[in-house]
Amino acid sequence: MTDEQVSGVARAEAARVGDMGQPTPVGVRSGRWVAVAAPLALVPLTAAWLFLGAGTVRTVVVWLAYGVLALCLCTVGASVFRAGATRDRTYARAVRAASSAPEGGRPGGLPARLHGTPWPSFRAVGLLVALPTLVCLWVVLAVAEPDSGNRAVALREAGAVTGKLRITAIEHEVTEGRGRRAHATADYTVLLPPAAGQGSGKGVPATFTADTERRQEVGGELYVGHVRAHPELGAVGDDQQAEVERKLSGRAVEASTSWVAAGFWILVTLALCAGWWREGVTRRGARGTGKGWFALRVRVTGGGKHTDAPPVEGTGQAAVRKRRENTRQLKCLVLSVDGTDRSIPFHGEWSSVVAGTALAAAPGLLVWHPQRRRGKDVLAELVGDDGWQLPGAVPARVAQGEETGATVTEPGTFSGTDQRQVRLLDLGAAWSATVPKPLLAGLVCSLVTAGVLLTVPDNGTWRLWAGAAGLLAPLAALLVRRSRPVPGSA
Q1: Roughly how many angstroms between the first and final C-alpha of the chain, as a whole number?
Q2: CA distances from 286 to 121, 153, 390 (A)
Q3: What is the pTM of this model?
Q4: Distance CA 445, CA 450 (A)
Q5: Which tens digit of pLDDT belongs to each residue from 52-83?
Q6: Which residues, at least 6 apart from 300, have a Cβ–Cβ distance to it below 8 Å?
Q7: Are 302 and 362 in contact, with CB atoms under 8 Å apart?
Q8: Continuous segment of H or E residues that includes residue 335
């Protein structure tokens, strides 16, 4: 067999392996599963704790969602301890998995079709949903009052109703503040209507403890929950009807608090997702190439920073302010244009320093279409000669300056346009294997604390301290992690 035949067989084998796909790097599947499952568990858990009363439905939803979160954390932990690595190693693994070199190392042509980016988009949306949901969950867990007492449970099961009744006695009053507007805790006694058939007496006395927003006096009125047919079951009351209804329904949070918290939660989540939808440079679908696309032969020289400062006419304060408002600092890959001394900044939703190390000296094509813009950028693809495709963006001004020296693609302009296949280079796919162990410990602490708050129905200020500890534990772990940086994990 001649050398040319051997080379042909090698190229065919490389192409065959490329079609079959490289083994998936460790942490990719677990990272994808967690990125989808965790937000889908957090949302119903938070909504159930906010809006559902005590009962089987809330119990099932809360503990099923909590179990999914625990399984997600176990999955991340297994990925960290089984194949944990710094980000530079996971990026290098991703590059090897996406490389096929179907052209035997020769400069590749423009593929006929470019991939979309589903998993990076899922991860971005999952993170943007999970963060405000976690904050909302911790707040409502901390301020919740899930224990309404055994009497409220008995009244709820017997079908209690709510109405205004007059106070006949007040005992053991403790006030906070001065004057009539002081908060008060006291034992209040009211007269419940007698059950039907038990005569027409003055009523059945019932005593309950309530925390009222204002001091009460004998002869005043409170909202009272009781069962008309069974006054012997007693009563619960408060000066706020919503609080009485909360106790009778078994809800952990008042309806007004629930809707306020849910409103902020939804608004913040939508704002974050809308901002990403508008500016996310890797969000795009699969699309074909052809007429109107530009291509440049480039080589990756490393990671760096680029200052995108559009020119502004004038030298006055207004011009200086406008220039400052439109100036961006972009962390990017630096691409050198073959045959010139020009460089192009190429940025995306990945660590540019680590990506620059993993892709150093990699040759390829930078391709873009001038009409595919998002904000101040032109969406672009870096197509490596090794067979991978990295989505990103180039500042619009830079792309316009390069179009004069770029090749305008036409069908069949580049060899392999109709045959070449590329793989999406998802640098962050194995993110679960890069979670620092201090952060993992903080998340475990946070999950355990959430379980305690969900399990223990006791009310009190301890819930505020526990909620603060659970919310701050991951942040404290990140501070520990930053104080001891690991080379290559930036």
Answers
A1: 49
A2: 13, 56, 13
A3: 0.81
A4: 9
A5: 988 889 999 999 999 999 999 999 999 998 87
A6: 333, 334, 335, 356, 359, 360, 361, 362, 364, 382
A7: no
A8: strand 328-337
